[in-house]
Design brief:
The chain has 285 residues and is of the alpha/beta class. Strands 2-1-3-5-6-4 form a six-stranded mixed β-sheet, sandwiched between helices. Strands 9-8-7-10-11-12 form a six-stranded parallel β-sheet, sandwiched between helices.
């Protein structure tokens, strides 16, 4: 990776304004903490203009990008290279500019994987159950399949076509034994009985519906590690029930911080200042 020199360089977030709310404060605080000559700014980019925006990034010499909704898929089509895991996921959220070449990757699944490992749970060789088949579930499932292959990956969802496509891609691209079924109380009870890790990747339990949970408390057991991708509130109903049942838990906040740290390290080539980044996120939440 090209080192950051003394000339101030720019990183940016492009996408819908809702995706800009925290990233500039988070990354600028991290750059300042390490006295790096970088600044992070936000740009609203209209649908249909992603290709031109990327050419602008290249021409202006920006160091890198965060890519938010609704541009993650289109951005993957217009960069020069895409890493294998991001290609398997089907979209990118990070771009690094190296000598005129735009390199695309996806930090979401790696953020979740790093959060699991920091909690003392490497999913490699374990039985993992994923709830949901949308964007977060896809990023996590494909990252695990490609970079930390479970012994078995089961996916429960409510959108048949989306679920079928995700299970097929996990099997083909990750070479991981995988299965999928419609999410019901019966299938949930069946698969939780053999799972080592539960990855909740649906919006159920998100503010303002903090009392909602897909998982009945009586299905939880102490041997299970429970991860919830929802980070507002930090302690969802699922995580509260899991803690009461004696489960180890991982908050969605850890995934959010993890994916930001992955982006930071791709742009700078130096370890992210995790505690600085955590303080910024906790202050905003």
């Amino acid at each position: 990776m090209t080192p950051i020199d003394a000339k101030t360089q720019v990183c940016a977030v492009i996408g819908h304004p809702i995706g800009h709310s925290l990233s500039p404060a988070l990354h600028n605080a991290a750059f300042a903490a390490l006295e790096l000559p970088l600044v992070y700014v936000a740009h609203d980019v209209l649908p249909g203009c992603v290709g031109r925006a990327m050419e602008g990034i290249r021409a202006l010499g920006y160091r890198g990008l965060s890519v938010t909704i609704p541009h993650k898929v289109k951005a993957m089509e217009v960069v020069d290279q895409v890493d294998p895991t991001a290609r398997a996921i089907g979209c990118i959220n990070t771009v690094v500019h190296e000598g005129g070449c735009l390199l695309g990757s996806n930090s979401d699944g790696r953020g979740a994987l790093n959060a699991l490992r920091q909690a003392g749970c490497d999913p490699t060789g374990k039985n993992v159950l994923v709830l949901g088949s949308g964007g977060a579930a896809r990023a996590i499932a494909m990252t695990l399949a490609c970079e930390a292959p479970p012994a078995r990956l089961e996916i429960l969802g409510v959108e048949p076509d989306e679920l079928e496509r995700l299970v097929r891609d996990v099997q083909q691209r990750g070479q991981v034994p995988a299965g999928g079924a419609r999410l019901t109380r019966a299938t949930l009870c069946e698969h939780l009985g053999t799972a080592d890790v539960l990855m909740h990747c649906s919006p159920i339990g998100m503010h303002p519906n903090e009392d909602a949970s897909l998982v009945p408390a009586e299905y939880l057991r102490p041997e299970l590690l429970v991860f919830d991708a929802v980070y507002n509130p930090r302690q969802t109903r699922l995580l509260r029930d899991a803690s009461a049942a004696g489960c180890a838990t991982v908050e969605g906040l850890e995934m959010f911080l993890g994916q930001a740290a992955v982006q930071f390290e791709l742009w700078t080539g130096v370890p992210a200042p995790h505690e600085v980044m955590r303080r910024v996120v906790e202050a905003h939440l």
